[in-house]
């Protein structure tokens, strides 16, 4: 006696289709979670290292003059400059390249005293500011930390 085959029911097909689509969506979500479409941090670092930054050093205050010393780090090298008895306000704009495109700035008031304030900005963002008051007071700014 031959067995009659029953046709596949449409309900079972829909169930299989829904399960396949759900598994596909879960697999896609897992893939995006594991491998997001964002640049690698090293790519961002390389891009920044190749760019140029504008570093602005500023000294202000009510002291008549200040001895100024600043160092700039650019492209792996550093350079230090000094100005004696600089009239306030004083500023210097430096172009620097690389990841450590910043530097240090110190201002020392003279024997007459007063307040000196140093400030460093990199690409318009303030990195450090410091003030000191008195004869030979020393304001010290380091934009790296």
UniProtKB/TrEMBL annotation:
It comes from Saccharothrix variisporea. The lineage of its organism: Bacteria, Bacillati, Actinomycetota, Actinomycetes, Pseudonocardiales. It comes from the Bacteria. Belongs to the MmpS family. This is MmpS family membrane protein. One of its GO terms (cellular component) is plasma membrane. Keywords: Cell membrane, Membrane, Transmembrane, Transmembrane helix. The keyword Transit peptide does not apply. It is found in: Cell membrane. Pfam families: Mycobact_memb.
């Amino acid at each position: 006696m031959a067995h009659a085959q029953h046709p596949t029911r449409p309900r079972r097909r829909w169930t299989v289709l829904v399960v396949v689509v759900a598994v596909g969506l879960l697999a896609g979500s897992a893939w995006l979670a594991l491998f997001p479409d964002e640049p690698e941090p090293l790519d961002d670092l390389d891009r920044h290292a190749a760019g140029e930054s504008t570093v602005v050093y500023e000294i202000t205050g009510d002291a008549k003059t200040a001895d100024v010393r600043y160092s700039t780090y650019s492209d792996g090298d550093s350079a230090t400059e000094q100005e004696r008895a600089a009239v306030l306000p004083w500023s210097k704009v430096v172009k620097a390249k690389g990841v450590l495109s910043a530097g240090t700035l110190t201002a020392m008031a003279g024997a007459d005293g007063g307040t000196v304030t140093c400030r460093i900005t990199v690409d318009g963002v303030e990195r450090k500011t410091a003030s000191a008051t008195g004869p030979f007071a020393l304001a010290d700014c380091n934009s790296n930390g």
